[in-house]
Design brief:
With 686 residues, the chain is of the alpha/beta class. The protein has 32 helices and 12 strands. The strands form 4 sheets. The chain has a 6-stranded mixed β-sheet with strand order 2-3-1-4-5-7, sandwiched between helices. It has a two-stranded antiparallel sheet with strand order 6-8. Strands 9-10 form a two-stranded antiparallel sheet. α27 runs antiparallel to α28 and α31 packs across α32. The longest helix has 33 residues. The termini are far apart.
Amino acid sequence: MPTIALVGNPNSGKTTLFNALTGSSQFVGNWPGVTVEKKEGRLPGCRDIILLDLPGVYSLSPFSPEERITREVLLYQRPDAILNLVDGSNLERNLYLTAQLLELELPVLVAVNFLDVLRTRGDALDLTALSQAFGCAVMGISALRGERVAALAAALPALARARPATPWSRFAPPAEAALDSIAMLLPQQRPLKRFAAVKLFEGDPFIQKELFDARAGGAPDPSSIASAVSAAETALGDSGDSIVAGGRYDQIGRLCARCLRKGRRKLPGTRLDALLLNRWLALPLFALLMFLVYYISVSTLGAWLAEMIGEGLFGKGIHAFGQDLPGVPALLEEALARWRVSPWMRSLVLEGLLGGLGTLLGFVPQMVLLFLCLAFLEGCGYLSRIAFVLDRLFRRFGLSGRSFLPMLLATGCGVPGIMAARTIENERERRLSIITCTFLPCSAKLPLVALIAGALFGGAWWIAPSAYLCGMAAILLSAALLGRLKIFPRGGAPFVLELPPYRLPSPGNLWRSVRERTASFLKKAGTVILLSALLVWFLSNVKWEAGGFRAAEGLSEGMLARLGQWAAPLFAPLGFGTWQAAVASFTGWIAKENVVSTLGIFYGFSGAEGVTRKHLAAAFTPLSGYAFLLFNLLCSPCVAAISAIRREMGSRRWTLLALVWQTGFAYLATMTLYQVGRLILHLTGT
């Protein structure tokens, strides 16, 4: 079955094109490095062709894990053909990868993306001249607008049967002589001799290890290769890798001068960058935007929608069309009474399922609005610029702007945030980012933020932004403290980021982003959280007595209450030493959504208004409630995120360090907040 690899630079529109060609719904972001794993799809009109969306790379010299994925697929799994997507708005840099792909002896089709941007700038690109120069087909498209995507899809079946491309790059005569000598030294059966010769000339450590392995038969003499490279370096007065890079860019520059005529129009984002990247205004503007995001999604419009659903659907009901419409609890209670359901089953449905899931689902509107706002900011290209703005601040704490992508994705879910740390080449920054990125409130923690804000602070606007700021402060402080440990290697790499152009996100991409994140939450609510709610209800309503389970007289007599009473003293210095709060915090390690659903079961509520006026206000003070929120924001993440940490760290020792640090830091930070808060309240007499 033919396989075509979709290869291109980061943020060249690969995932958008992959979705358009396969009908898939992968996440699309206006940010370099969104794809960190290879994805597979099939063409709707030709189901026997497999299309692989590989992580974006700038070259075939691998420095990060996702670059190694792309290189290993192309060199060792050997697809049948390559679809090379090129960003036409940055042609010269993108063609460097194209020059390397042409050396892989595979059929290549070059698709030049962003034709609409070229037209906006008044640029004119001669695609025919490009095709003649490369000796392969070249097509112009706009993946975002769908322009000529159908024609590209129609050309792919023939691509797998096309003749292999031939190497295009040519270097100075001394370098070419050295490459010929190196190729002659390679084993006769060695494939891709030109590619291997160029990589050896550059000093590529992976190719060197592969060829000079003592166990490999017919390995070339390293000294002969070193002699050929040294002769070329002496003749040209430069290192081997600089000779190759300089030669390629010189040739690409001459080709672009011949094929591309640039217009004089500037894209509208130039003036916007002067404001948003201003040295003094950038951070205040970012803080203002994040405040507006949380103000709209959590405190105002989101809170209003959540109250409508919480009170109307899962609460007392609503008054509409001149009559009172009962909510789900009243309807269910009436139906269960009519069907003469046993008391324990009635309790299971009303208190276990509805009390747990109903409370949680009432906050879905706030989550949807938050997802929509973040998807818009990311899709338009603004959030990638914040990485550039934050780089100077982050470096003071041992991180860099690269760490912002894991943090950004972690606001949706910790798992993709942890996985996104693969894009960080520096091992020290990568490990620090994995350990700390889950401090930011993810979508699973948002219901708890909204619950505490509504129940104990009257829906105060500052609660949600303060949760975000606490998470960011925890990241920076943790990075500064952990970075002092000897197990974290010293030094860092310079941060280079290609700023994507400003683009108005398409409604389809916004819908896809919001739908995927919301569907993930609802799927978890219907599986893990549902089962957790049932287990919590069962353990809360039974006790172990006389060698068997017996019905408990009340929640305080249940098995879970006994366990919570044993653990509650651990949380007393934090301000919430009740068994209910202790158990809710422990269930959060399975899934953070469980904290709210567990409280819903213990306090017997559904609907935000009931929570606010009757239950949590009696169980928590504002100070202890905020302490409870802070601990559950900062402590170790859910089981799925812990599994991702183990996978990305590749070590149980590192995983254990991450969990101990996250939980210990959360405990100390919460205890400090509560105890200092108590002291201030005591001194002020409030």
